[in-house]
Amino acid sequence: MAIVIGLRAAWEVGARKVEVQTDSRVAIDLVQAATESGPHYQLVMPVRRLLERAWQVVLKHIYREANAAADFLASKGHSHAVGEHMIQTPTAALNFWLLHDCMVFKRLG
User: Fold this and answer.
1) How remote is the C-alpha of 59 from its chain's centroid?
2) Which residues share a beta bridge with 53?
3) Are 51 and 6 in contact (CB under 8 A)?
4) % of the chain beyond a pLDDT of 90
5) DSSP 24-47
6) Measured on CA atoms in the order 95, 101, 107, 109, is the torsion positive or negative?
7) 72 to 11, 33, 47, 57, 69: CA distances (angstroms)
8) Is a pLDDT exceeding 90 seen at residue 35?
9) Which of 10, 48, 63, 95 lies at 20 to 30 Å from 3 by C-alpha?
């Protein structure tokens, strides 16, 4: 669902070249698989429909060690109401984790 929400948000703000980074290799494999049925079909199809739009989207696997910002946001999400929340300006704490991820990604990549 996070991929769907992120792609929808990117489309709505006019982004037409998007890189989706996830530490879930399984999510990427499910989206890229050719299957038209199965237990994850209902989750995968909205992503595939979004990918068919007139834009360039790259799905990229990253290591969990380089995805601390996502873990930080997930931990903060427990204190908010259920739903989508857009961050217009990153907080100092989020900027710290984003910088951390960039440094780890550079080292691992």
Assistant:
1) 9
2) none
3) no
4) 44
5) -HHHHHHHHS--S-STTHHHHHHH
6) negative
7) 24, 30, 24, 24, 5
8) no
9) 95
